[in-house]
Amino acid sequence: MTAHLGKMVRVWSLLVLLTAAVISHAGASQVLRGTGDLGLIIERASGSVVIIETTGQTKLGRVEGLGDLSHASAVFSRDGRFAYIFGRDGGLTKVDLLRAEIAARVIQSGNSIGGAISQDGRLIAVSNYKPGGVRVFDAENLKMVADIPATMKDGTLSKVVGLVDAPGQKFVFSLWDAGEIWLLDFQAGPEPALSKYRNVGRNPYDALITSDGRYYVAGLFGEDGLAKLDLWNMDAGVSRILDGYGRGEEKLPVYKMPHLEGWARAGDYLFLPAVGRHELLVVDASTWREVQRIPVHGQPVFAVARPDGRQIWVNFAHPRNDTVQVIDVPSMTIVKTYTPGKAVLHMEFTPRGEQVWISVRDDDRVDVYDTRTMEVTQSLRAEKPSGIFLTARAGRTGL
Amino acid sequence: MMHSVMSRASNWRLLNNAAAVLLSVAVLIPAMASAGETLSDSRRTDLNHLLRQDCGSCHGMTLKGGLGPSLLPEQLAAWDVESLAAMILSGNPEKAMPGWSGLLSDAEARYLAQRLLEGDVQ
Predict the structure, then answer these.
(1) Domain for residue A365, yes or no?
(2) How confident is the model over A258-276, as pLDDT tens digits?
(3) What is the domain count for chain A?
(4) Is B67 part of the contact surface with chain A (CB cutoff 8 Å)?
(5) I need a labelling partner for A97 at 20 to 30 A (CA). Which of A268, A361, B86, B96 fits?
(6) Could you give the CA distance from residue A238 to residue A226 in angstroms, rounded to a whole number?
(7) Is there a contact between A253 and B100 if contact means CB atoms under 8 Å apart?
(8) How many angstroms separate the CA atoms of B113 and B98, rounded?
């Protein structure tokens, strides 16, 4: 009797264990959920990403093995399920956000700097420093579709920056060494048509495309001004805007290049980081003329608009990178200055703008701010966090 | 005669001074050879961090290059501590390299140069 009872207990224990295992497995893989509130945080030093959701502001998982993610960025498949992550070491990794695992990965070059996804979501283009050029991949399996070396007139290759997608299966990018803007058009199929715009200005360092997909604007490091291409009127060529802003003024040493991706448009104005100056440039979006400058805490790196355009959040280059400032657009004044910690690297708004996620690299922390109360509502641990990317980007041109 | 004594005395002073200078140079040389000796441990930790994270924003976190060139030792064969430290401090505006003289001392720039040449950037 006692022996029989002992046997029954053992059987029950086994059953309970098995059931628990089945439940926990189901919990990991079979809970239905959408992807609209998902995103990821790049952990730049450990080659990993943390998958997050913005409804409960929690971490859902972590994926490792992505290589050198310093200066990494991401774009999303149109269904928001997959992230394509561009590493520094030429790695291109497709991550399944729902399963928290790598779906595909290639090392496509020796040194790269971001990329873009085509309008139809079928092509991934990567901007390379080494070998200088753009490579384009099938979004499904990451097989190479096209290889476009950025060959200059002297036969050497230029580093490529400022790669964005544009409507009509186009990619636009700039050649740092050559001072050119190139446009790749995949409308006719896998053999792209290539247009080149030469002599656009010295050392374009990054670029933006307006959210309607009409204007491509490259910032120039070697000159005070920006180069603008109107994609609705490409025969007109590239024109210069803000030509010679700050001419004759001494520039400060630039310890970190500003970013134009994630640039801010608020109402009638564009807010752009001034290179080598503690200023934001405010530009009239209809005339492309400078309206005013706003003095800020340091050299701006990112100036991003809350999606409603009411606020601009700005972070800064080394050695002033412990600070974030918030500009109230109607009054064009700084209404808040935060010091979240050493090395604030990136800011990302939720699509309706009620939250902004801010990475603080040296404190291994990501903070979530309520943009109405201006209070921190959540802090998450992440290892040396840099870029934060939410799936809402999937539906936006140029992001 | 008087003049000659004075002269000898001043020569002696000169010699003494020269010896003092030589002595201090002799003391300085080993300090320069490992330029970090004048820097505190915590400052060196900061500088190692700066090298990876902030130099790394252009040269790559592993210093294999980015918008700026690779800074791995094999790429720096043409440089010595002096010339590399001078480049760090003064920069190269043609190549978007900022001068760090506003943020770093000579000793700190030498320390960074030495770390780079030794390939010790961890």
Answers:
(1) no
(2) 888 767 788 789 999 988 8
(3) 2
(4) yes
(5) A361
(6) 10
(7) yes
(8) 15
pLDDT, tens digit (0-9, with 9 covering 90-100), for A101-113:
999 999 999 999 9
Nearest-angstrom CA–CA distance, B89 and A253: 11
Amino acid at A65: G
- A318: three-class secondary structure by DSSP: coil
Percent of chain A topping pLDDT 90: 81
Tokens 């280059």, located at residue = A317
Q: Among B49, B54, B96, whose Cβ lies nearest the Cβ of A221? A: B96
Residue A162 lies in a domain: yes
Tell me the residue range of the domain where A263 lies. 256-339
Q: What is the ipTM of this complex?
A: 0.77
Calpha distance B79→A326 (Å, rounded): 44
Cα distances from B102 to residues A87, A283, A365, B52, B119, in angstroms, run: 32, 31, 29, 19, 25
For residue A47, give the amino acid letter: G
Q: Is B61 on the interface with A (CB under 8 A)?
A: yes
Residues B65, A253: C-beta atoms closer than 8 Å = no
Instruction: Report whether the peptide linkage leading into residue A131 is cis, meaning its omega lies within 30 degrees of zero.
Output: yes
Range of the domain at B42: 38-118
